[in-house]
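A brief tutorial aside. Many learners find it easier to grasp structure tokens once they have seen a single protein encoded end to end. The record that follows does exactly this for Protein trichome birefringence-like 38. Read the sequence first, then the structure, and try to relate runs of similar tokens to stretches of the chain.
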Amino acid sequence: MSTSNHVCLVLVSVSSMLLILPCLISASIAAQTHPRIKQKGCNLYQGKWVYDESYPLFDSSKCPSIRKEFDCLKYGRPDHQYLKYRWQPDGCDLPRFDGGDFLRRVKGKKIMFVGDSVSSNHWQSLVCLLSQHVPGSNISRVTSNTTSTVVFQNYGVSVTMFLSHYLVDIEQEQVGRVLKLDSIKDGEAWKQADVLIFNTWLWWYRSGPKQPWDYIENDGKIVKDMDRMDAFHKALTTWANWVNSEVNPSKTKVFFQGISPSHYNGTEWNEPGAKDCSRETAPLDGSTYPGGEPLAAEVVKQVLRSNISPSKPVHLLDITTLSQLRKDGHPSKYNAFAGMDCTHWCLAGVPDTWNQLLYVELLQGR
Ligand SMILES: *[C@@H]1O[C@H](CO)[C@@H](O)[C@H](O)[C@H]1NC(C)=O
Ligand SMILES: *[C@@H]1O[C@H](CO)[C@@H](O)[C@H](O)[C@H]1NC(C)=O
Ligand SMILES: *[C@@H]1O[C@H](CO)[C@@H](O)[C@H](O)[C@H]1NC(C)=O
């Protein structure tokens, strides 16, 4: 089954609000100002990468405080071609990212990314895009234990990163640190936002010293461990229940950022010898990834389809396949740690496209 069919199936069944389906671009007031995205039936997530000399969308050397993990040029990446690709949906063109327009549309609003370091990657891309597309804007930064916020003061827009590796809670108890699959306590802070973009996946298979919990609590029982995909599914279900009971859809628009793929297994992209992304300098041609979609992406779609109430639409930013094609987009060894990283993404780079897609989704829905 193609990805496009899948997305449409998922969202048709969770929502009667056909007009704001991500897979159907319909004529809305917003779209009239962007005639190129008016075509009906265009799946934004089905397409290919094309070389575009006008890219990247921002200059990383002018974006302050890009995390050391993502600043590939600063840490010596010699090939620059990876910066030059634009996502081209099959049925329509994406509008070019317009930071001023973006900020005007979300004037006075709070945008919050909630998730792991991939969310941070996504957040930093948006901050860089907005900062550089709106010259002279007055920007302030506030950091606390779990959040980093950038405020675009002239527009009253805040863009926050809320770090939550699992979305559900980890609590210190007598037995040790417990990952509580049935509990979300951070939600009070999330509810204040007008646009929420969630993500969790990266940490679900952590084990050994890097695993930040000792036990899992599931249905009131404490266990040492369990099937990790089941645990992920359970936590997403808890998150879906949180959305159903706590989100006010007339205030808050909710997105789920699809699974961001890693590239450590060349068999998936027809280079059986490759054990990482270190020699990758170009995307895969075409629209399909030989390795197929990861199981986790299926789990996400299943939860959005089955567990989200129709009155609480959650829009999937279905970035998995388009990012799978970008085996060239990771930092590889060009980061401050010189470790091989084929999980995160260089900035500028692939997450800029995720934000272009977020921008289009906001154009459609507001
Ligand atoms: C930026 O913000 C500062 C402090 O809030 C203010 O003094 C200054 O006038 C602002 N500048 C612009 C260009 O809005
Ligand atoms: C930050 O974390 C510390 C230690 O966990 C805690 O005592 C403090 O209240 C937290 N601050 C905020 C603003 O949440
Ligand atoms: C790499 O991917 C292939 C195809 O998906 C799979 O059969 C194989 O087990 C994977 N290898 C490793 C080491 O994960």
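Self-check: The pocket of 2-acetamido-2-deoxy-beta-D-glucopyranose (ligand 3) is lined by residues 265, 267-268, 291 (CB under 6 Å). If you spotted this yourself, you are ready for the next section.
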